[in-house]
Amino acid sequence: MNDINLDLAIKHGLTKDEYERILELIGRKPNITELGIFSAMWNEHCSYKSSRIWLGKLPTKNKRVIQGPGENAGVIDIDDGDVAIFKIESHNHPSYIEPYQGAATGVGGILRDVFTMGARPIANLNAIRFGSPDHSKTKYLLNGVVAGIAGYGNCIGVPTVGGEVEFDSCYDGNILVNAMNIGLAKKDKVFYSIASGVGNPVIYVGSKTGRDGIHGASMASQEFDSNAESKKPTVQVGDPFAEKLLLEACLELMQTDAIVSIQDMGAAGLTSSSVEMASKGNMGIELNLNKVPCRETGMTPYEMMLSESQERMLIVLKNGKESEAEKIFKKWDLDFSVIGFLNDTNNLTLKFENKTVCELPISALADEAPKYNRDWIEIKKPDHKNIEKKLNDINLEQTIKNLISHPNQADKSWVWEQYDHMVMCDTVQFPGGDAAVIRIHGKKAIAATVDCTPRYCNAHPYTGGMQAVCETYRNLCAVGAEPIAITNCLNFGNPEKPEIMGQLVGVIKGMTEACNKLNYPVISGNVSLYNETNGIGINPTPTIGGVGLVKDVSKIKNHKFKNKNNYIYIIGKTLGHLEQSILCYDLLNLKIGPPPPIDLDQELKNGKAIKLVIEKNLIESCHDISSGGIILCLLEMSIASNIGFNLKTKKKGLDRVKFLFSEDQSRYIVEVNDQNINRFESQLKELNIYFDNIGLTSEKITMYAEPKFDGLAIALTYDSGNLLSAVTRGDGNVGEDVTSNVKTIRKLPLKLLTKRAPKRLIVAAEVYSLIADFQQINNTLEQSQMKTFANPRNFAAGTVRQLDPVVAFKRNLQIYTHGIVEMDAELLPPTHSESMSYLNEIGFQICDLNRQIDDINHAIEYYDDISNNRDKLPYEIDGIVYKVNDYELRNKLGYTSKAPKWSIAFKFPSQVSQTKIIGVTFQVGRTGVVTPVAELEPLNIGGVTVSRATLHNIDDIRKKDIRINDYVYVKRAGDVIPEVEKVNLSKRGKTIRISMPPKCPACGEVILKISNQSIYKCPNEFSCKPQIIQSIGHFASRKAMNITGLGENIIIALVDSSLIKNYSDLYYLTYDNLIKLDRMAKISVNNLIESIGKSKNPNFDKFIYSLGIREVGLSTARVLSENFSTLDDLMNTNRELLETIKDIGPIVADNIVKFFAISSNVNKIKKLILSGIEINYFELSNNKHISNKSFVVTGSFNNKSRYEIEEIIKSHGGKVSSSVSRKTEFLICGEKPGSKLDKAKEIGTTILTEEKFFKLL
Question: Which of 260, 427, 629, 1104 could form a disulfide with 661 if both were Cys (CB 3.0 to 4.6 A apart)?
Fold first, then answer.
């Protein structure tokens, strides 16, 4: 006893004042077991010492409430002798320390709270919140928590039907895991935890007690610091299968009359359960700890009383019922032990090894537990901020894309699809909507939801608390339920800080007002405080779980649009409140100003109106407007149903932004069909409800999905049914002509199989190789000691560009067609799916995996199916392409500057396999950069044998601690070079560290490290063979001088035979030089000489790019060509002038000046000019009709493609845009122009035909 002192008490989480109060209450020092029991009962988690005063102010009753706060869970009457029992609790601290077990045991604990009261659990919900998606721990915590919830809930057989997921940096150090459960019981079979009856036996049932979870409740009552990981032993370990047995055994016992009271051993385990039962019944309790079933040897009374091992119950039975009860628990293979009895001492008495190890007054542990009226600061509502200037130039289209792709608004099906939401077969409304709906029996159902908007609570706790209650109220009304009651989980920081306590008080005051007004009381809940790490707390997060009654399940509504051409109405006024909205908070990082105000009278009035129009079946669908405003609400309805909408608004500029994104409260969107419009509007007018017709639902949007082939894109042009040309990219007019080689592809129709062939047809296709053919050619090349192809795509591309069609024919290339680029308008089918069928009929190969997609679930299923079976395919694919099926809708969507808006590609994740690094080689690149490459034991990744992988640079090697002889994970994605992702440290043996060589592995020159970069470089650019070869290859590449037929093997042969020393020598090669090279036949030599000759007239931008100046890519070369009149002007420029040019920064400017300052570079350029190269300089026409004018091009044209017309406009100084706006001066309109023509007519844009446009030139 003498070792018990204040320091030890403080280590147990008690304060100096609390320890002195304990001494006063019991008149002596406690022993270690008693001290532990006091620490458990007096901690924040069990005693609610900081919040009890304020929690008592919450309304807890209405005519349906049977049991409010104070029991394991709340109870409401749902008619027909049925009751719903529900509660929400937190498991925040454990889930941060050990996410899987923390979340899993959170589910287990809330299930026990509910079935302890005699209810069979019928639904789980959860609210989980994580730090920023970019935070290093977020992915790990998210995966662990979701897996834990799924693992426990799925195993026990209770559906998880709803919830919310949020990301915010305020949760970086403290995630929130709030678990809710709803159970169903009969009104006359509800069980309580009030102990009674002197002499009645106290029974321990369930799993055995271990040392897991000791001090778990105390840990949940403390802040975290940098040593949070050390608290892992305080996290409980759950067993869902044991929980299932315990549930069934308890429910079976509850069918008898044996139970007096029953209590879950949750937080503080045996201590809390025994003390709470005795306290509620004003009884004493004596326990013999030698009879507690333990799974570990040598457990002390202290450990047994504080253990939070899972799946355990404490039951008080009627005297003489022990044998009957024991048979039930033994049947379910569970421990059953009579460990004590009730008495009238009003003490907690513990016996162990025939000694009394604890004797404490129950009142001292429960009634006398601290109850603090902590200091608090009222959080005033912030003043309105002027944010309008920052919203004036907002790009609506991009902002909407950002909105629906933000982690907080994006589809969360990845989460809830891991949960079994259909087990028990009573889930009527699935996750993803406003509220889940669970059928009871017959026509009746329960609706449930969880919600909170922490950013509102942080800005003004009072309004935020009110809104959290109202949001769940709206969610329930939106499905047609009568909201009855709520449960809450109040998650806050350290209550000892007045500002944090002020948040808690403000939230509770706001909740109280909303609950009173809506007759929507709090009947159960939990408070989780000290959600802080190193003094940084979370946003106040009062998670509200709302439950309502659906009297006729056939009348419920969901948020999915039901049909096209239905009317869309908004109920409730839009005032334009943007502060604290998703737009400002998440997208624009404007985290200022007050949250939207709430009119509780309007909330109640609008909610009742929604329930009435649903009851009378006057609407088709309904969705409450919350975060994201009207636009996100409509998008969610549209995406869920795959039915579009046309929004009708005359608002412009900032007013339009406010209309779309404001988060004014008490609003709903409803869909009404034509037959119900008059009755619907009359009903709302009668109720004096504000409403407005804001648009119509539109055509159901179907998509077309196809595998994304890892091949070479080809455009095929047919003239009157005969193949005219094949080019490697573009629309049939721009690209590299490879017609002769493409004609060798056996499955390509050279003449179309139709009597009515289009006059002109351009189709998009993909040339690819079968994996087996790729492997066969590589085997042949290896045997000949020649360089192999890196992957099937390079093999296909290289073959198509072969100079000799006979070689191309032998390589057995394949081709699939995937779209019509251009076609006679009268023959073009209305949809892509019909076009593909048409192409197949006239002789084209169509992939048999292509599918029409009808909704988002179908799209996901298609992706998963192809992804799971891709390794079985005889060819390589690297993703899925989804396209809008309807051509008219495609025209409305249009194009960005780079790609169509109606198509999107989803790449497959990188493929990863494990192998061993057997060595490292160092490659020298075109600019002299020396790169380490791992030599691997060959492995197969996605059907391709990989024996080398990039290591990037020495800094990356050191960061990943990669060594020779390590077993590593190698990642490969499509055409990307394989890379070493990480080391399998568990298999590390004797290894060799990797270091950079002191000299260039190719030429022996001392390599240099570039200052402040992870780059080592060989400076010998004139004599280092790899640099020379790659420099020439870059010069001759398609994007540069486009010398076809000059492959790497030929360049090596030319360098080795000393015929060329750099790229300027190419133009001095002769037939006699080339014919002497190995494997160069007469045709190949003539073709190469012809190609070199054709390249002598390059555009200025391509010539600049071909020189290989560091950091100067095609786009930069284009900018330079537009700003310098001649090559001499560019060569003689300076840094200052270059840096005045848009898109040219100091690094690029420095590289350009340095390049032209090197005499050898200047000499090469002079030699090129002397060889006869004539550069086409970029010249803008001074055509007054086009120069500086804004154009949009739409539709199909007879003489030129859209691309060609756009290039003509640019060459004459005009500007091209993809969408019509008031800044558009001309719309050039072909056939089937779509909505752009309507928009141009509406705003008065000048409309030109193709013929009229060319008259301007």
Answer: 629
